[in-house]
Description:
The protein is built from 15 helices and nine strands. It has helices spanning 2-18, 23-35, 49-58, 76-80, 85-89, 117-129, 157-164, 180-191, 203-213, 222-234, 241-257, 279-292, 312-326, 333-350, 356-376, and strands at 39-42, 60-61, 65-69, 106-110, 131-134, 137-140, 145-150, 168-171, 201-202. The protein is globular. The protein starts with a helix and ends with a helix.
Amino acid sequence: MNANIERLNQVLTYVKNTFIGKNEIIDLLGISLIARENVFLYGPPGTAKSAIVRMLASCIAEGKNFEYLLTRFTEPNEIFGPFDIRKLKEGELKTNTEGMMPEASMVFLDEIFNANSAILNSLLMALNEKIFRRGKETKNLPALMFVGASNVLPEEEALNALFDRFLVRVNCDYVAPELLQQVLLAGRQLEQGADLLKPEITADVVKELQQHCRSIDLQPVYEVYVNTIFSLRNAGISISDRRAVKMQHLIAASALMCDRSAAVLSDLWVLKHIWDTEEQIEILEGIINGIIDKDDDPKAHPQARFNKVPDPEEIMKDVQLLQAEWETGELKFEKQNIIKDKLRYLQTRADWIKSAEQKQFIQTEIEALWQKMLQTI
């Protein structure tokens, strides 16, 4: 398996070198690809969501790619293909899927939450079970992975089921100012078509990796994983039993990407990306970072080692904002819990501050706010 993993890592490195500052997004796409789980990219226009997926798809040789921008008026024929006219004349309803989603190895659906009721049910089955069903037709889909993207999160109840089909959620934002010059240079090279040395991986090799992913030993992390699920649920993050089962594939994929046959504690870093709301992003980071920081395995995934160094001034500012929010008056129970979850996250972040004096000062302020909260209850 070493050669196959190396090949995939070469592809991911190539994409990272093209899209500067997007390493986390690209690594998560690689993890999801060999876990055969769907990814949702969330962020404003112009953050290279489509371009990254398009380039990754172009590196899969002998694969068919399908990309579509959904609108409120998108019809099933545009996604799944039209009915075959010849068969229709014979009284048989059969879809001509040539060049459409049911034949694609990589599927990218932009503005996914524009999906209307006409295509929703078929889309849900395709995403969840990798099966296309239309009338009497049933077809297993060859899709290695589905990627959806949007600059908004779902608000309608009917779209929550669609959002739930994307196990991994990635927040895509503009690159840091210090990387902007590199982004401009890489963008120019991309426009000039400088991709003659583009590495490739075949769909069959990806399928082999997906199969091998299921054989990774997760026993070393099971106890911590189960306790983590309980902790996340207690923090207000909804994790169904079905999602808990699927999340194991992500942990296994992280281990496989590092060419290991067994998972280690740091592989739980992928759980930072199972949020439902923007508020949960910080809560997840606080809980998961507290777990993976205990692991010093030399073969840990690089993303597990990357924790943003906290800015003491920013943390103090956030603590003051929470304090002001708490003192505004009577708060609903749900709002109180959100404030407490954010404060727990800040408390965890404060532990990483290098200056002992600054750390002590901020921790004292946090403790004072906890006391104020206890007195309010």
